[in-house]
């Protein structure tokens, strides 16, 4: 909003005045910097991070584009990493029963820079971010930390984004049409977008550094969540043991973190996060293929063509 922009530093104001700009989906403007779209507030926050943020080798970063399963991934990895401290089977006492996943795993771009992510309640630190690879702090790229990247079919990602956007828009703003949102999406104009450049950055990094970046897809995780949980556990260095397999730990975590369980919890049905987002907005349907209920065949074809062209011979397909 204009009021927020007044609080920007001189430096940031100067920078954004030279950048291509477009109206965002909710309020305020987006600015295109080094190929990606940001709000001015996020730019102001993350630019100093590049050299000042101190990653630790033990850190685990959960990276997503908005609406590609962030909430689910946060819940699953939180439950995994803290399984000795919090028994996923004793639902009553589990932090995921009394907190929204976003309250347990902070976003890098919404925390103060001071000593890294101060409010991070876990050890190792579990930190989420929507930042494209090129905007990750240098120390995250250089340190021995792990990155779990989760993406989603672009058509479902878009439909989820459109619904979410309309939940965030106030009554005065009114709803934004599917067509207008679609036009922006196809031009790559969305916060942290373009979609294809975001996924490609992490896809290539995962091929070059498979020990550093684990690349996952929402659809595949829905199809076989157990194997994905095992894969994540191994990747972040806390594999599921034979003993844990014998008492079905994997299923316990999956049930604790399932869409049905989380979305029906009191704590996720009402109230807002400190960011102002309503907690229930993060749970809609949680299904694969909902785009079929919203996109015309022409729209679907258009996305497919763009994605095919942009992803080229990368080997990544949706
Ligand atoms: P839909 O809008 O298609 O239902 P994010 O967490 O990145 O904001 O993504 C939100 C999407 O993930 C929404 O998709 C939401 O319903 C879905 N989601 C939320 N919690 C989930 C869970 N526990 N399991 C599967 N999907 C979930």
Automatic annotation (TrEMBL):
Transferase as UniProt keyword: yes
UniProt keyword annotations, A-Z: Transferase
Molecular functions per Gene Ontology: sulfotransferase activity
Domain of life: Eukaryota
Domain Sulfotransferase: from-to ranges: 57-314
Stated family: Belongs to the sulfotransferase 1 family.
Protein name: Sulfotransferase domain-containing protein
Organism annotation: Corchorus olitorius
Shown stretch of the complete protein: 307 to 624 of 625
